[in-house]
Amino acid sequence: MSAQAIEDCWNRVGVRGNRSCEKLAEHTHCRHCSVYGAAAQAIMQRQLPAGYREEWAEYFSREEADETERDRAVLVFRIGSEWLALPAALAVTVVEAARPHRIPRRSGGVLGGIVNVKGRLFPCMSLAALLSINDSQPQQDMRRRAYPRLVVFSLAHQAFALAVDDMSGIHRYAASDLLAVPTTAGKGLRRYLSGVLALNGMHVGVLDPGVVGAAFSDALK
Q1: Which of 55, 62, 142, 183 has the greatest number of CB atoms lying within 10 Å of its CB?
Q2: Which positions fall inside the CheW-like domain (predicted)?
Q3: At 159, which helix (H) or strand (E)?
Q4: 115 neighbors 100 (Cβ within 8 angstroms)
Q5: For 111-138, what is each residue's pLDDT tens digit?
Q6: In which order are the strands placed within the sheet that holds 149-155?
Q7: Which stretches within 168-208 are classed as H helix?
Q8: Phi, psi of 64 (to 5 degrees)
């Protein structure tokens, strides 16, 4: 049945027309009428328009866009001159930088002390000490301003606060984007990396959260 042969009385004498249909008193609305139901069934059973199948076949045969492949996300930050990243899903909160309170005979090295974040105390850990990174500030890019932050990450079933010198935000990437760790990377850094990402003209070391978390836990013992 063609679309032209379908009775569409609801548009003329029904609820979308002048409401002169005598069946309205019985059915209240055209959708309750058998004529309306028969028209709906006829529309569902009509012949597909030319090219309909081919159009949808072509649509579903397309390769997925790059955006759908980027199923991983990292939070990118800077320690000294090194840009690093940890899985964004492990980030608990980000707050303004704060000086940790030193723990007598414990602070120094990887454990910097304890810090209050939104009313809770967290061990404040030094990635610079763990990774043997020179944490002196690099020459600043005059086009942007650095914003030191405290980032709380959940690593090895425990929350740790990390002081970072700057942040670049959350970046998504595909597994194929992760490059091998170059042999030129420092030995202290290389053992904690799972790979390297090229993002916005910079190389970002992606940290292995399991290895970093285990090292932080050992530093608390």
Answers
A1: 55
A2: 71-218
A3: strand 158-164
A4: yes
A5: 999 999 999 999 999 999 999 887 665 5
A6: 91-96, 149-155, 158-164, 120-125, 111-117
A7: 187-190
A8: -65, 145
Report whether 150 contacts 99 (CB < 8 A). no
User: Can you list the pairs that 188-195 forms with residues at least 24 positions away whose Cβ atoms lie under 8 Å?
Assistant: 188/130, 188/131, 188/132, 188/133, 189/82, 189/131, 189/132, 189/133, 192/130, 192/131
pLDDT tens digit sequence for 148-178: 999 999 998 999 999 999 999 999 999 889 9
* Total number of residues shown for the chain: 221
Residues contacting 82, CB < 8 A, separation 6+: 131, 133, 189, 205
- For residue 70, which of 199, 213, 187 has the smallest C-alpha distance? 199
- What tens digit of pLDDT does each residue of 14-69 get? 888 888 898 888 888 888 898 888 888 777 777 777 787 888 788 777 665 555 57
Give 3-20 pLDDT, tens digit per residue: 446 778 888 888 888 888
